[in-house]
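Protein entry
_____________
===
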Amino acid sequence: MARRWPFLLVAALIAPGLATSLAQDAATSGAHEVPYPEGFRRWAHVKSALVGAETPGAGRYVGLHHVYANAKALEGYQTGRFPDGAVIAFDLLDVRTENGSTEEGPRKFTDVMHKDGARFASTGGWGFQEFEGPAHARTLDHAAAVRCSGCHERRAPDDRVISSLRE
């Protein structure tokens, strides 16, 4: 017993702190979560673009891009300030070209921006997530979402939104 008391003392001292830390992690684990925007293809269509392999820096963004906005995001495009609840979906599809005709192929991924000033204060009020393929697998952890925010920072005058509404 004499040999075990230091271990028991250390365990007794760190257990409450560890339990508190785990509880805080569990309570905030969904704080930065951006949900998949079910039905986004029925939202307002903002614009489309076709990015070819010859485009400098295109990398994984080669394909057919569609940008969609929910009603609150549409309001933001029109006013320049996006209210909480605005959601923008950037849908990237592979392309197939055959006999001079280019058609959309399978979905590569869908990037989503979700405006919530309180939940996403550390990233300019926007939450970011990427959903891969038809299974909508989440691919961004919080650190990756912060990196997304860094690219959007250069568009701070436009409330960090890179796309613009096609009239």
Observations:
- Confidence is low (pLDDT under 50) at residues 4-29.
- Residues 41-158 form a domain with the Chalcone isomerase fold (CATH 3.50.70.20).
- DSSP finds three helices and six strands in the chain.
- The chain has one domain: 41-158.
